[in-house]
């Protein structure tokens, strides 16, 4: 008998060891066997929170409010108990709202990220005032104030006017509705064609919104251009008055030289490739010419041009090199074997005849340059005529020496 009691006691203890934890877990929830995680929050307005208010994270209940008291600085101190093991990011914020229209409050914790670090026991969670939702009592008060501000007589007058406006328009409204149904049916039938159009319109609007700054600048430029046209009104009037005579003169010129237009166009077809190949030189010229004209203005002294002409004379050292194709701007390796033999009154021209760098002098130079051009005039007073200068210049271009 005594042995049976011992066996029953052991069986009771084994069953209790299994059943009691499950019962505690069922009655007290997941936190029944562990300490909850306490959190704190400081709010400028607790909105009437009370002990036992549920706390949720993303709408899932994870705890409750344990205490709400007024702090020494006039703020509301709120104590929370969170279910153990709940991962709440440190950047989360706490808000107080009403889950139903009857005014039942709830505390919702809104994580601002999905990763840690996470809040621990005793930490403080932020509850910024500007992030708190509008409370139900405030909404109802504002709604009552809005309804109270409506003029009943004005609403009645509006209703009477609307009724008078639609009186007798029944057939027209019926026709409008019927036409709307017809239009809807046709649009539904053409939906396959309208869909690409709507997609293109959406892309166009998106592109225009992305180019808003450029569009604004373009409109501003158009407005400026319009103002300039308005300011130039007298000029347009003058042109309008004198344009008929000018157009008549142009027509006379065109009639006179009608037969030469074909040759002119043919010449343009010949000249255009030449100009096109020299685009880089034209760009440089158009950039340098204004600077040159500005510099040229510096020689003006009063009503005269004051400048000095520095001329040189004597033979020139040149190398007969193959000229590159016009428009070829690729880099060229310098030729370090060319040199100009020392001679009195000898000059060098052209990048191909530039001195070698790094003070190499004529070291390892094997290709001397030729001399072209007249010798130095013994008596500078003897200035050659223009015909002689032209002749000598042609000889220099051909690479030939000219007699003295």
From TrEMBL:
InterPro entries: Mce, Mce/MlaD, MlaD_Phospholipid_Transporter. GO terms for cellular component: extracellular region. Residues 343-369 are annotated as: Disordered. Pfam families: MlaD. Residues 38-111 form the Mce/MlaD domain. NCBIfam families: Mtu_fam_mce. This is Mammalian cell entry protein.
């Amino acid at each position: 008998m005594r042995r049976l009691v011992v066996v029953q006691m052991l069986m009771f203890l084994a069953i209790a060891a299994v059943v009691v934890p499950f019962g505690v877990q069922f009655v007290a929830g997941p936190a029944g066997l562990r300490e909850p995680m306490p959190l704190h929050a400081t709010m400028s307005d607790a909105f009437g929170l009370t002990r036992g208010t549920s706390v949720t994270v993303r709408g899932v209940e994870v705890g409750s409010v344990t205490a709400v008291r007024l702090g020494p600085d006039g703020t509301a101190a709120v104590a929370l108990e969170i279910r153990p093991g709940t991962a709440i990011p440190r950047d989360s914020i706490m808000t107080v709202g009403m889950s139903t229209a009857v005014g039942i409050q709830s505390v919702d914790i809104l994580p601002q990220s999905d990763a840690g670090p996470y809040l621990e026991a005793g930490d403080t969670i932020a509850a910024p005032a500007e992030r708190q939702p509008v409370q139900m009592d405030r909404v109802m008060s504002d709604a009552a104030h809005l309804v109270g501000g409506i003029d009943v007589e004005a609403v009645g007058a509006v209703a009477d006017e609307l009724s008078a406006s639609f009186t007798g328009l029944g057939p027209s409204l019926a026709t409008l509705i019927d036409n709307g149904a017809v239009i809807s049916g046709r649009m539904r039938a053409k939906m396959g064609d309208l869909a690409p159009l709507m997609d293109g319109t959406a892309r166009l609007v998106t592109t225009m919104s992305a180019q808003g700054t450029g569009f604004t600048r373009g409109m501003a430029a158009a407005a400026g251009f319009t103002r300039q046209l308005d300011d130039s009104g007298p000029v347009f009037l003058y042109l309008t008055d004198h344009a008929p005579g000018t157009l008549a003169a142009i027509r006379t010129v065109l009639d006179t030289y009608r037969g030469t237009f074909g040759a002119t166009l043919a010449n343009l077809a010949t000249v255009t490739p030449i100009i096109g190949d020299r685009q880089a030189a034209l760009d440089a010229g158009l950039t340098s010419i204004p600077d040159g004209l500005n510099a040229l203005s510096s020689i003006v002294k009063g009503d005269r041009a004051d400048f000095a002409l520095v001329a040189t004379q004597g033979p020139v050292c040149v190398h007969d090199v193959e000229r590159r194709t016009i428009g070829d701007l690729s880099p060229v390796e310098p030729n370090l074997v060319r040199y100009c033999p020392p001679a009195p009154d000898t000059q060098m021209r052209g990048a191909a005849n530039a001195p070698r760098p790094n003070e190499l002098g004529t070291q390892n130079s094997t290709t001397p340059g030729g001399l072209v051009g007249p010798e130095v005039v013994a008596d500078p007073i003897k200035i050659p005529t223009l015909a002689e200068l032209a002749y000598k210049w042609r000889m220099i271009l051909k690479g030939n020496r000219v007699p003295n």
